[in-house]
Amino acid sequence: MISLAETNWQRTLSIPERAGLPGDPRVRSGEANWLNWKRLAIFRRRGVDIKSALMPLRVTEEKLRILVDETEESLLFRSAGMEPPKWAEQLIVWWNRHADGQDSQGTHGFLNLVEDIVNAAVDDMLAGVEGLSWPEVIDRDILFNGLVESVPTELLFKFITPTMVLHYNRNYRSNGLNDFYKVCTEEWFRRQILSDYPMVWKKCVIALMNWVRATIIFAERLISDWDDLVNKFGNNGNSTNVELHANMGDPHGGATVIVLEACGVKCVYKPRPPDGEIILESTVGILDRAGIPDLPYTLTYVPRPEYYWEEFVETTDVSQENAALLARQLGSLTAILYALQADDMHHENVCIGKKGISVIDSECVVHPIRPIDFETLTQKNPVSSLISCGAHTIGIVPQPLVSNNENRNRESVADISVFGYRADERTTFKVPQFRIDGVDNVRVVTDDAVFDDADPVAGRQLLIEYRSDFITSFTRAYRGILENSDDFEMLVERASRSSFRVVCRPTMIYAKVQIESCHPDFMTDGAAHDLCLSKLLLRFEGLSARSNLIAAEIGALRAGAIPLVSICLGTGEFNVDGYRFKSGFYPMERLLKHVSNMSEQDLARQRYLLEIAFGLLISDACQTRPRISFDAFSGSDELKLEAANDILTWVSNHVYIVDGVMGYPIMIASAPNQWSISPSGFDLYNGLAGMSLMLNLLEDESRVDTRRLADIADSTLVSFRRLLENDKGIVIGNREILNAGAFDQVAGMAIHALTGKRLRATPEGKGILTDALTMLDSMVSADRNSDVISGAAGSIMVALASLDDSPTAAERLATHAYAKLRSMSVSMGDGKVAWPGSDGVPLAGFSHGAVGIAVSISRLWTRGMIPEDEARKFVSGALRWEHTVYTPGHGWCDMREDADTRAESSMQNWCHGAAGAALARIELLDMSRDLLDDDLYVSTLKELQDAAAITRAFTRATIERDGSDCLCHGTIGNLLIMERLAGYDDINLSREEVDDLWRLLLKSKADLGWRSGGVPNSNSLSFMMGLPGIAWGLVFSVRDDPQFDALSLSWR
User: Fold this and answer.
1) Which H or E run contains 445?
2) Pair 190, 198: CB distance under 8 Å
3) End-to-end alpha-carbon separation of the chain, Å?
4) In the predicted model, what is the mean pLDDT of residues 96-103?
5) Count of Cβ atoms closer than 10 Å to residue 99 Cβ
6) Between β-strands 425-437 and 350-353, what pairing exists: parallel, antiparallel or unpaired?
7) Are 690 and 1046 contacting, i.e. CB atoms less than 8 angstroms apart?
8) What is the H or E stretch that residue 442 is in?
């Protein structure tokens, strides 16, 4: 027998509950708990408004400091007048019901700890359902057994296991697990856990109370709706079989999805309103009446205001016979879901069934509030928001996740989309996991999350072969919605009272925090438990509903549930387990605006995004590349300009301009051969700086209104100048997530301001340049990179290119960046010097390597900004070190961690290999001859001659095999470097040879089209990887006046 006092319910009170108690808390000495709280990110990260951050806990920092170290005596005294919580009273009833000496069976492992209260809960559940008026055809005994089996044992196991593992390993390991399982049945041990870890019992009791209530409600609903279920789903009235499968998903308030099979009726019980099913069925109906073929199958259901019963779907395998039809149905479904702004439609929620493609979980079928709306951004970009709403984000087409860092290859990419799901794929997302090694070695470890659910659909990979059918069907259904937009808008307006789930954070985040909160350290009392849950506090800054939303999330997790947030389409009101509050969003307005913005131009953009998404999975986007009309009698210069104009026309049709802001989708490499789609930024490599550079260079040579586009790019930069403010929080944020290299965001803003024809002369342009250089100066000392692309060498090059426009800021940046390079240099012996790469290994070449860094130092010396002896040390040292990784006829070793081999590089381009090595050496020999002794000069010249020959041969081979044409690692970048090499007396490379290669390239593009880098057969909008850079390179090759050279980062 236990008493109310023995439940220790006061210790389980949460921080908000303790804050509401009367009286002044007495604090123990030492502040041990407060020191743990101070480790939270909200206290460690600079720039966080602590008062605002703590509002979800309903306390100030000073109040929190007192509460977390309050003595137990003080807590008991202040809570003396408080009514005991229901869970504590229920625990007494259940515990004492079996306190008459009845022995536990002890066959449930760690769950033996709570076996008696589980049995008591089962008794209460059965008492609640046995007295109901059941249909005679249902075998009650079998059904009741099914209800008993629905006890949420997985949830209980999650709550109990970490504490049991601790006790086992600390005190009982020598006796083995079986002996410990018996200990878990002992009254004295259960009392000990209740005394030391009352949160374990609180969470288990609440889960069981919710289960009892939800199960009885299910039974009542089943009886009430039985006749309708027989009429809708019955197929064999003579069957007496009864099966019940519960806990098919995360429990919310104890209620879960249940698959029921009884007396010929097979259906799925879903304890939420059928709003998603209704609007999806209605949308499909509009297209069906319009004669659109290959629509998804809509499930039969029996609706009720608070729940519904739905047809059970039998999955089917994909074969060559049905794959094309399934792909077309997925295409039309994607168009429908795009119109509704759906989210979370991954392989578990969209089923490949015997009757066709169907949505089996439509709670997120309307989701106009997107994940980007919950991100804390210094300034929101409307183009980013638009791309985040793209058809590729819904969950149907491939969405590879970042792979495991220790095995970064295509085989390890995790993907939960309908097209791309494969079981047993790992992610880099770490979660606590329960492990038993051998017989008695049990532990909790933190390891990569694995999507290990077996795929019920064999042959899923065949769908990708029919992506053209998918695109065709998507296009047809999209146009069907356009042609019937009035009906669709009326449908949306009629759904104003409907509510739909909002994914504020990935469910995996909630699950991770929930598991972590069950660590024994957090189960000792409610304040300690809140410490772990308060990891959620550092989010949603600037969101008007932030305090209420996070408070609701934490409240759900306290109760042992995954937070379920829904929003009313018409009112924008959030609802979290019955707690309603204003969201600050207007979902109806957003959805109607989205529908009104659907157009043929938007259709082209969505097709582009979908094609790229398929390319992420199979390394082939299958997009039609821009071509040129080859005229044998035209000169190469004319052809270059014509080709650049063809590309520019394509680019101008694919950039987004929203509210005067320019942007576009790009592909980001998260690891080798692993790509994701992201919005463009302001960098030179992928972003607006490169686009602006191209637009400005083509302005006088283009057929489209390039000036207008360039001006929009400039105004976009000006509108985001706030990102460069000398604000402490912004500086800290930039240091944490950005690099100071020439091809990162801040340097890109500087380059854009420096190279914009009209912007450069304006006060805004001059101010942005100075602000960007000042921001780089604030960042470079904390940057861990040294190279041109990402590090201090790039900062130096940008600073020196800006000396005439912003001398003070540029000189200051160059000085500090050089100091950073000095500190990061590593002596390699015998006068050799190198700089560690991102994985600690020095690299060779211009963009990432030692000679690129040497070029930046050489430029400082030619400007008289550093002593000659220091310049000689680093320039000569870098050349000497790179000579050690050089092989005549093959070039320089690719020393990257993720390279296929560290022998001779297979790349001979600007980014890695001979072309970049040649670019660096031609400048060093031309500008820094006095820094090299005679022997080093001769050896470097021989390397340069070899590099020129390697680059020439590699470029010809690339053209002949239809390789990439991009600046970074393609033909255009190589040819521009070769143009610079041609004409030097000591290099065996003539301008005529280079021109021959240009003609060969231009002729091949008439047949094959321009090939971007990255995902094969994708038309990339990245400057260094894609079409804008190719167009820029074509025109840069025929320029008349000095221009900013993106490859050497200098005016030339």
Assistant:
1) strand 441-451
2) no
3) 88
4) 66
5) 11
6) unpaired
7) yes
8) strand 441-451
Measure the CA–CA gap between 202 and 200, rounded to whole angstroms: 6
CA distance 995 to 959: 14
pLDDT in tens, 527-561: 999 999 999 998 898 899 999 999 999 999 999 99
171, exposed or middle or buried, with CB in 10 Å at 0-12, 13-18, 19+?
exposed
Q: What is d(CA 62, CA 43) in angstroms, rounded to the nearest whole number?
A: 13
Spatial CA neighbour of 738 closest among 782, 703, 707, 771: 782
Nearest-angstrom CA–CA distance, 358 and 500: 18
Q: For residue 912, how many other CB atoms are within 10 A of its CB?
A: 27
Residue 857 structure tokens: 């130092």
* DSSP line for 514-544: HHHHTSGGGSS-HHHHHHHHGGGGS--TT-T
Angle, helices 275-289 vs 485-494, to 10°: value is 160
d(C-alpha 954, C-alpha 53), whole Å: 56
Report the distance separating Cα 208 and Cα 118, nearest Å. Answer: 7
CA-based nearest residue to 567, from 492, 488, 494, 504: 504
319 alpha-carbon distance from chain centroid: 32
Based on the number of CB atoms within 10 Å of its own CB, is 438 exposed (0-12), middle (13-18) or buried (19 or more)? Answer: exposed
Tokens of 966: 């991009």
User: Rounded CA gap, 797 and 799, in Å?
Assistant: 5
* Radius of gyration in angstroms for the set of CA atoms belonging to the chain, rounded to a whole number: 33
Euclidean distance between CA atoms 565 and 394, whole angstroms: 18
The token pair that represents 424 in the structure block: 């047993």
Closest CA to 164 of 519, 486, 474, 600: 519
CA atoms of 780 and 791, how far apart (whole Å): 7
- Separation between Cα atoms, residue 586 and residue 568, nearest integer Å: 9
How far apart (Å, rounded) are the C-alpha atoms in residues 263 and 260? 10
Assess contact for 750 and 772: CB atoms under 8 A: yes
**591-644 tens-digit pLDDT:** 999 999 999 999 999 999 999 888 877 655 566 777 766 554 456 899 999 999
Cβ contact 505:539 at 8 Å: yes
993: closest CA among 979, 1009, 980? 979
- Secondary structure (H, E, C), 647-696: HHHHHHCCCEEECCEEECEEEEEEECCEEEEEECCCCCCCCHHHHHHHHH
pTM of the complete model: 0.90
Q: In which element (H, E) is residue 973 found? A: helix 971-981
Q: Are strands 661-663 and 656-658 parallel, antiparallel or unpaired?
A: antiparallel
Reported as type and span, the H/E element at residue 467 is helix 467-483
Whole-number Å distance between alpha carbons of 281 and 482: 18
What element of type H or E holds 267? Answer: strand 265-270
Residue type, 735: R
Tokens of 37: 């709280």
Would you call 1017 exposed, middle or buried from its count of C-beta atoms within 10 A (0-12, 13-18, 19+)? middle
Dihedrals phi, psi of 1026, to nearest 5 degrees: -135, -155
Helical pair 763-780 and 807-824, crossing angle rounded to 10 deg:
20
d(CA 713, CA 753): 11
- What is the CB neighbour count within 10 angstroms for residue 301? 19
Vertex 591: Cα angle to 586 and 593 (nearest 5)? 95
CB atoms within 10 A of CB 264: 16
Cβ neighbours, 10 Å, residue 424: 11
- Express each pLDDT in 317-364 by its tens digit: 999 999 999 999 999 999 999 999 999 999 999 999 999 999 999 999
Tokens representing residue 929 in the block: 């001859």
Q: Where are the alpha helices (DSSP H) in 197-274?
A: 198-233
Give ∠ CA 451-453-455 in degrees, rounded to 5. Answer: 110
C-alpha 796, offset from chain centre: 32
Give Cβ neighbours of residue 754 (< 8 Å, ≥ 6 apart).
760, 769, 801, 802, 805, 1044
